[in-house]
Write a structure and sequence with these properties.
Layout (H helix, E strand, L loop, with lengths): L1 H17 L6 H22 L8 E9 L4 E7 L4 H17 L8 H20 L3 H10 L1 H11 L4 H29 L1 H4 L7 H6 L12 H16 L8 H8 L2 H26 L1 H6 L1 H20 L4 H22 L2 H32 L10 H4 L1 H14 L6 H16 L1 H26 L19 H19 L2 H16 L10 H8 L1
Helix pairs in contact: 1-2, 1-4, 2-3, 2-4, 3-4, 3-12, 3-16, 3-21, 4-5, 4-6, 5-7, 6-7, 7-10, 7-11, 10-12, 11-15, 12-15, 12-16, 14-15, 14-20, 15-16, 15-19, 15-20, 16-18, 16-19, 16-21, 16-22, 18-20, 19-20, 19-21
C-alpha cells in the first residue's frame, strides 16, 4: 500500500504529461489527486495507533552490494504528515484552477512528482532511498517556481536550489560515513537501513566538537535546518514564497518545510541522542530568535505574501523548540504544530492568491475596506488569521500551548521568551487584517475601480475543508494526536537508546 501511495502520483504525472485533451487536464488532475487521498484514508484505517511499531513494512534488496534496500514503513511520527500531503494536493489543484494558465499539463505533472517525492521522504526507512526522494523533491519545485513564478523567479529558484543542495551534500557525506560503521552491528555487512543506524554506538565526548557523533549530528542538522528553515539559514524562504505561484507557496509552506522538522524527529534526535541533548540549547536559542525575528520583520512588510512568509519563520521556531526540549509535551506539540501550520498557512496563501487574481497586487497599503465589498472572503480570512495567531478553539492554540508547556518544563526563561512571539504574532496579523479589510477604502477597493467579486463556488469548496480542519483540530485534538501519541511517547522515553520496534511478523521477516 505504501508503494502505491508513492508511485501512483508518478503514474499520474506521466499520464498528465501525455494527455491529449488540454481542456480536461484540470479535471483529470483533480480526479487523480482525490484517488490518492482516498487511498491514504484506506491506509489510515489500517493503521494501528496503539503501538509505536513500524507498520505496513515493505522491504526488498535494491543495491545489495552496498546494503541499500527498498525499505518503506510508517509509524505515528509520519502517518499524519502523509495524510497532510494527500489532503492538500486536491485543494492545491482546485485552488490553482484559474491562476495556472500556461503549460497546464506540465504544472500538474510536476505537482504529482513533488507529491511522490514528499511521500517517499516521509515513508523511507533506508538512508539512500530517503536521500533519493529528498533530492527528487527539489526538481519539480525548481520548475514550479522557475516556470510559473513571478518576475524574479530565476533568482529565487537558484537561491532555493543552492541552499538546499549545500545542505544535502553534507547529509550525503554523513550517510556514507554511517554506512561504513554499520558492519559492527550487522555482523560484517554494510547497511543503509535506518534501523541499523539506530543500533550504532557513535562516540561522543561532551565539550569536544571534533567527535564523530557531534560532526555527524551537525551535518544532518544543518541539512534539515536549511529546509525548515531555521534562522539564520532562512533567507531563501521569503524570496521563494514571493516569487512562487500560489500553489507553489501552498505546497512549500504546507508540506515541504515539514520535511525538515520531520527529519529532526526521525533522524537527528534519535540517531545522535547525546549530541542532541548536549547541543539542544543552540537550537532552542535559534528557535527563540526565529520566533522574535520573524515576527518583527513580518511587522514591517508592505507585501502581504512576504508578511506570511516571515510568519512561517516565526512559527517554525516554535516547532524547533518543541522538538529540542525533548519532553512529551514539546514533541507532541511540535508534531501537531506541523499539521497546524500546513493547514493554516496553506489557507492563508490560498486566500492571498484569490485576492491577487482579482487585483494583481499584494501591497497592503492599496487595500482597505475590503470587508464591505467581499464579506465572505473577509470571514474566511479572519478565521484563518485566528488560527494563525493561536486563538482558543482553533488548531493553532493546541500546538502552541503544548510547545509552551514543554518549554516551561525545560526552562521557564525559554517559555517566557517564546510567549512573546504569541503577542507579536497577534500584533502583525491583526494589523494586517485591519489595514486590508477595515477602515477607509484603498485605491484597489474604491467603487470607481473594477468591481471586486466575493468568493466563487469553487473558492468556497477550496476553503471549507481547511476551515473545518481548523476547528476540528482545535476542538477535538485527540482525534489527530492519538495517531502519534504512542510513537512520540516511545521516542521520548527511549531517546538515549532508540530503535523503532517491529511487530513479531516483521521482525521474523527482517531476520530472514
Amino acid at each position: 500500500m505504501l508503494s502505491a501511495l508513492i508511485f501512483l502520483p508518478i503514474v499520474f504525472a506521466i499520464v498528465m504529461a501525455f494527455w491529449p485533451q488540454k481542456n480536461t487536464v484540470r479535471h483529470l488532475a483533480l480526479g487523480f489527486s482525490l484517488i490518492e487521498f482516498v487511498l491514504s484514508l484506506g491506509m489510515l484505517q489500517k493503521f494501528d495507533s496503539s503501538t509505536a511499531a513500524l507498520q505496513m513494512v515493505e522491504q526488498t534488496a535494491w543495491i545489495q552490494r552496498f546494503g541499500i534496500s527498498y525499505f518503506l514503513g510508517i509509524d505515528g511520527i509520519s502517518v499524519m504528515l502523509v495524510m497532510l500531503t494527500t489532503f492538500l494536493v486536491p485543494i492545491i489543484i482546485l485552488g490553482s484552477w484559474n491562476s495556472i494558465d500556461k503549460q497546464v499539463k506540465g504544472f500538474h505533472a510536476a505537482l504529482f512528482v513533488l507529491q511522490a517525492a514528499m511521500l517517499g521522504s516521509f515513508l523511507s526507512m533506508d538512508a539512500i532511498l530517503f536521500y533519493v526522494f529528498w533530492e527528487l523533491s527539489l526538481v519539480p519545485m525548481y520548475f514550479i517556481v522557475g516556470i510559473w513564478g513571478g518576475s524574479r523567479r530565476i533568482y529565487a529558484t537558484l537561491k532555493f536550489f543552492i541552499y538546499t543542495m549545500s545542505g544535502s551534500m553534507l547529509m550525503l557525506l554523513a550517510i556514507i560515513f554511517m554506512m561504513r560503521l554499520t558492519p559492527e552491528v550487522t555482523g560484517g555487512y554494510i547497511s543503509a537501513s535506518l534501523l541499523d543506524f539506530y543500533k550504532l554506538n557513535i562516540p561522543f565526548v561532551a565539550g569536544e566538537f571534533l567527535t564523530p557523533q557531534t560532526l555527524l549530528f551537525f551535518a544532518f542538522a544543518v541539512a534539515f535546518a536549511i529546509k525548515v528553515p531555521v534562522f539564520p539559514l532562512h533567507t531563501w524562504l521569503p524570496d521563494a514564497h514571493v516569487e512562487a505561484p500560489t500553489p507553489g507557496s501552498v505546497v512549500l509552506a504546507g508540506v515541504m518545510l515539514k520535511m525538515g522538522t520531520y527529519c529532526f524527529l526521525r533522524w537527528v534526535i534519535p540517531l545522535f541522542p547525546e549530541a542532541a541533548e548536549h547541543y539542544a540549547w543552540i537550537f532552542i536559542a535559534l528557535g527563540v530568535i526565529g520566533i522574535i525575528y520573524g515576527a518583527l520583520v513580518a511587522m514591517v512588510q508592505p507585501d502581504v505574501k512576504k508578511l506570511v512568509a516571515y510568519s512561517s519563520v516565526s512559527h517554525m521556531g516554535y516547532i524547533l523548540i518543541g522538538l529540542f526540549v525533548m519532553n512529551a509535551y514539546g514533541v507532541n506539540g511540535a508534531l501537531y504544530q506541523m499539521l497546524n501550520h500546513g493547514i493554516s498557512t496553506g489557507a492563508l496563501f490560498l486566500l492571498i492568491g484569490m485576492i491577487y487574481e482579482r487585483t494583481h497586487s499584494r501591497e497592503i497599503s492599496k487595500y482597505g475596506g475590503l470587508a464591505g465589498v467581499m464579506p465572505y472572503f473577509t470571514i474566511a480570512f479572519v478565521i484563518v488569521t485566528m488560527s494563525s495567531i493561536a486563538v482558543p478553539l482553533t488548531n493553532g492554540f493546541v500546538g502552541e500551548f503544548l510547545i509552551l508547556l514543554g518549554a516551561y518544563s525545560y526552562s521557564p526563561v525559554v517559555a517566557a521568551f517564546a510567549v512573546t512571539g504569541v503577542v507579536l504574532g497577534a500584533a502583525y496579523m491583526l494589523w494586517m487584517v485591519k489595514r486590508v479589510f477595515f477602515g477607509p477604502k484603498g485605491e484597489l477597493v474604491k467603487e470607481d475601480h473594477h468591481p471586486l467579486l466575493d468568493l466563487s463556488v469553487r473558492e468556497v469548496v477550496v476553503l471549507v475543508p481547511l476551515i473545518i480542519m481548523i476547528f476540528w483540530m482545535g476542538i477535538f485534538p485527540n482525534h489527530f494526536m492519538d495517531f502519534s501519541k504512542a510513537s512520540v511517547d516511545y521516542l521520548v522515553k527511549n531517546k538515549m537508546d532508540y530503535s523503532i520496534p517491529l511487530s513479531p511478523n516483521q521482525a521474523q521477516a527482517q531476520e530472514k
